[in-house]
Amino acid sequence: QSAGRTRSRGCWGGGVSLLLTIPAGERQVLRVFALDLPREQALELIGQPDVLAGLLGVAVDPAGIEVFDVADLAGVGLVTYLIEGDGAAEAQIAADRARLAALSGFVMIVRSQAFAGHAAELRLDACLTPIGRYGEDVSVVQFEPLPNAAAAGLTGQGKPAMSDARIGGMVATAVLVLMFVFVAVFVWMAR
After folding, report:
1. Predicted TM-score (pTM) of this structure
2. Measured torsion, CA atoms of residues 69, 48, 57, 24, in degrees rounded to the nearest 10
3. Tens digits of residue pLDDT in 143-154
């Protein structure tokens, strides 16, 4: 992710913005921004792709963006919300823990899905302050051995051997068919 400063209209009327590059194919990353906006303007951002595009400088999918007042997380806190609610890696959050805990007002969380896998050059409005970039905690799935040896190895071994009952049933069916044919031939000859 590269960053640089440039002049822009910023915060709906003036200021300096930051450039951020989002690589193509980015997945499982979330970015946290502090929003320097009055409550009414911050609430206007929720689910509004055109307004969000104005702040980020690029078209985004609003489903990948969350905007809320940190005060709404009373009792939970932003750090816990990011780790337990959004799945951010706790090890990555650790470096910014104090900064995140000290935030007040509105924040914007932008997930990778907002860019739909496309590369993007963000031109952040001056009212957005980047706080951090965090990967999601993706646990490696480990499979435990099966507890019962009888359950292991049953797939891919071909057809099971025929049981004695099945063989006996097949023999009895063949004998009955032959008897039917034999009786049918006698009845036909007796006519």
Report:
1. 0.65
2. 90
3. 777 666 665 555
